[in-house]
Amino acid sequence: MPHHSTPLDLAFHALSDPTRRAVVSRLAEGEVPVSMLAAPFDMALPSFAQHLKVLEDCGLIASEKRGRSRWCRLVRPRFDEAADWMETERRRWAERVDRLQAYLDKAEDVDGKPV
Asked: Read out DSSP for 40-94?
């Protein structure tokens, strides 16, 4: 399978890291300056900024300079794309499980014994 860096691929890659997921969870409560966002993490600000860059590059967050602070906020459309993809896959697997169950029920009815 070829490797493509689509926006959705980049979003899932960004969300694969626990620090970035924690940032996203915090930003779900509202926008916040980077200094407040970084406070709970035991890492240097340049290292933390790299996490923000990954999130921003894939379109999950946006930031802007306000005075002497940089503020971050979530960007909804990329989350909607990821949620839509997951819902499509969830439905597909639910349908497969339902078909398997129907097959097993039919096979059991034919000879009266469980398969």
From this structure: TS-S-HHHHHHHHHHHHHTTSEEEEEETTEEEEEE-HHHHHHHHHHHHHHHHHHH
d(CA 51, CA 24): 11
**Are residues 23 and 93 in contact, defined by beta-carbon separation less than 8 angstroms?**
no
Nearest C-alpha neighbor of 20 from the set 58, 65, 66:
58
Q: How far is CA 29 from CA 1, 22, 37, 73, 102, in A?
A: 38, 12, 11, 9, 44
User: What does the alpha-carbon distance between residue 11 and residue 92 come to, in Å, rounded to a whole number?
Assistant: 21
Query: What is this structure's pTM?
Result: 0.75
Tell me: the pLDDT tens digits for 6-62? 888 999 999 999 999 999 999 999 999 999 999 999 999 999 999 999 999 999 999
Q: Rounded to an integer, what distance in angstroms lies between the CA atom of residue 9 and that of residue 45?
A: 26
